[in-house]
Design a protein that fits this description.
By secondary structure, the protein is α/β, with parallel strands linked by helices. The chain is built from 15 helices and 17 strands. Strands 13-12-11-16-14-17-15 form a seven-stranded parallel sheet, with helices on both faces. The protein has a six-stranded mixed sheet with strand order 5-6-9-8-10-7, sandwiched between helices. Helix 8 (232-244) runs parallel beside helix 9 (262-268) and helix 8 packs parallel to helix 14 (410-432). The longest helix is centred in the C-terminal third of the chain and has 23 residues, at 410-432. Residues 138-209 form the RNA 2-O ribose methyltransferase substrate binding domain.
């Protein structure tokens, strides 16, 4: 006997139990040929009902109430027939419903297929506008998430593929977060790394003034100013160098790449949560975040491999000509800033430019609270950076390189200058006690 109900074919097959004439009904549900998904509707008569058939001539058939009762009890004990309540329970756990479980006192969910929260990973990771307007950032990997939690960042949602991955995190700091267990294949789809670790978290966008930066006993009176750094890898490497060199803080001008971009986070290796980083600053705001008696130096990335320039710096420290300022913007920091060379024949142009002396990087230049400005490789330094160096009696620091070498990578130049500045400041602290460090802490407190 076959019945067609809403795209589902229900086939009823009978089987004989024992030697009696009692026939048990079994139902097999087969999906119809329609492409539209359908819902299986169970008939009013549940599986397990005893069907009394008409006896065939010549065949004995015993159908007593006693026999029916024994057959039903035996079939139910054997597991062939499910109770009515169990079937409806299975219907309530339809696909799309999240199942809540518990681990070490924390509740977590199993993500259902098509969970829209997973799609937010792509928005947070790829859209700077979304990160800024929604106030969210995405962190991937155990180490980076642990660094954020140790610094006091607020987690919102944590996606993990295995319970063991979740246990690697400090669970006591995840009590206010939503924990969601997903398939590793889903994490691999949205992950931006080659070998995902199986744990991704969405945090509230941290405020540097509210984070807890510990283990800063080795910091020195040195600040890093990133001016128009567009490459994410370079910016992340510079932040990592700033932490390693013991910088007190890092200031980023408007025009720099987003400091919370995933590529920057991976290259920085947790630097975001080890020292204060202040992004999207105007030059007036940068001066306010520096101590009063600071000296600002700029990295001269226009010298290249010209050996005559090195000799010139060694022999004389006179103010360079305007033709040497092709690496400086002629206008304030704007979105469509043009960078151009200057004609040395014009005295008016020469007088309008900042007058900053050049100095070799290994000479003495870090003798008090110091700030170092590193410009982008494409456009170089902003005019405001050189004006600030002139205002604070700073220098253009020159790193000599071998012939036929155009210039150093901005991150490499930053690492050389930062560690040289650290060496000079530590030497000064050894000779004059710890007065310099206490002065720096008083200015920033």
């Amino acid at each position: 006997m076959a019945a067609y109900m809403r795209g589902v074919i229900l086939e009823r097959n009978a089987f004989l139990y024992g030697n009696g004439g009692v026939i048990m009904e079994s139902i097999r549900h087969l999906r119809g040929l329609r492409r539209k998904p359908v819902q299986v509707l169970y008939p009013e008569t549940e599986t397990g009902k005893v069907v009394k058939t008409t006896p065939q001539p010549g065949k004995a058939s015993v159908k007593t109430d006693r026999t029916e009762t024994k057959v039903m009890e035996h079939v139910k004990e054997s597991g062939f027939v499910r109770a009515k309540g169990n079937e409806r329970s299975d219907i309530r756990h339809a696909p799309g419903a999240a199942v809540k479980e518990q681990i070490d006192g924390l509740h977590f969910e199993r993500a259902a297929p098509g969970d829209k929260r997973l799609a937010r990973l792509v928005s947070v990771a790829n859209s700077r506008t979304f990160r800024e307007h929604q106030g969210k950032i995405l962190l991937e990997g155990r180490r980076l998430i642990c660094d954020a939690l140790d610094a006091g960042a607020s987690p919102q949602i944590v996606f993990f593929s295995m319970v063991d991955r979740l246990r690697e995190l400090p669970l006591d700091k995840l009590k206010k977060a939503t924990l969601v267990k997903v398939k590793f294949e889903d994490i691999k789809i949205w992950s931006d790394v080659v070998a995902p670790q199986g744990v991704i978290a969405i945090f509230s966008r941290p405020d540097a003034s509210r984070l807890n930066f510990t283990k800063r006993d080795h910091s020195v009176a040195l600040s890093l100013i990133c001016d128009n750094i567009r490459d994410p890898g370079n910016l992340g490497t510079m932040l990592r160098c700033a932490v390693a060199a013991g910088c007190y803080n890092v200031l980023l001008t408007k025009g720099c790449v987003d400091v919370w971009q995933p590529k920057v986070l991976r290259a920085a290796m947790g630097a975001h949560f080890r020292l204060p980083i202040y992004p999207n600053l105007e030059w007036d705001d940068i001066e306010n975040n520096l101590p009063k008696h600071v000296t600002v130096h700029v990295a001269d990335n226009s010298c290249g491999g010209d050996r005559s320039r090195e000799a010139e710096v060694k022999v004389s420290h006179e103010t360079p000509k305007a033709t040497e300022y092709g690496w400086i913007s002629t206008r304030p920091n704007q979105s469509n800033t043009r960078y151009e060379e200057y004609d040395s024949d014009s005295d008016d142009e020469r007088l309008s430019l900042p007058r900053v002396d050049a100095k070799l990087y290994h000479e003495s230049w870090a003798q008090n609270p110091t700030a170092l400005v590193i410009g982008g490789e494409t456009h170089g330094l902003s005019l405001e950076a050189v004006q600030l160096a002139e205002k604070t009696a700073g220098h253009r620091l020159f790193i000599p390189v071998a012939p036929d070498v155009d210039s150093l990578n901005s991150a490499m130049a930053a690492s050389i200058l930062l560690f040289e500045g650290r060496k000079q400041l530590l030497k000064l602290m050894q000779t004059s006690g710890r007065k310099l460090k206490s002065t720096m802490e008083r200015h920033f407190s």
